């Protein structure tokens, strides 16, 4: 008799299950939004790293050129 009573309420498909289903759909939308933000943040990080890396490459080239010019000027001609 206890099994019959438990079987009647444990079948699922009630209002509470449908309501939770709507919550899962909302969470899915939120997860998609977070994934888009994560992708945008990754792209922003890559662009920043590329810009910084390029700037450092140019700066090191200028330093190398300045060093070569300074050594050329200061080296005595025999």
TrEMBL record:
It is a multi-pass membrane protein. Coiled coil: none annotated. Residues 1-35 are annotated as: Disordered. Keywords: Acetylation, Lipid droplet, Membrane, Transmembrane, Transmembrane helix. GO terms for biological process: post-embryonic development; reproductive structure development. The chain crosses the membrane at residues 46-73. It is found in: Lipid droplet; Membrane. Residues 8-25 have a biased composition (Gly residues). InterPro entries: Oleosin (IPR000136). Belongs to the oleosin family. This is Uncharacterized protein. It comes from Miscanthus lutarioriparius.
């Amino acid at each position: 008799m206890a099994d019959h009573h438990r079987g009647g309420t444990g079948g699922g498909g009630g209002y509470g299950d449908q309501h939770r289903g709507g919550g899962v759909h909302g969470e899915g939308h939120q997860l998609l939004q977070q994934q888009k933000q994560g992708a945008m943040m990754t792209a922003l990080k890559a662009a920043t790293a590329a810009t910084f890396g390029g700037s450092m490459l140019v700066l090191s080239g200028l330093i190398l050129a300045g060093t070569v010019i300074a050594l050329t000027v200061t080296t005595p001609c025999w």
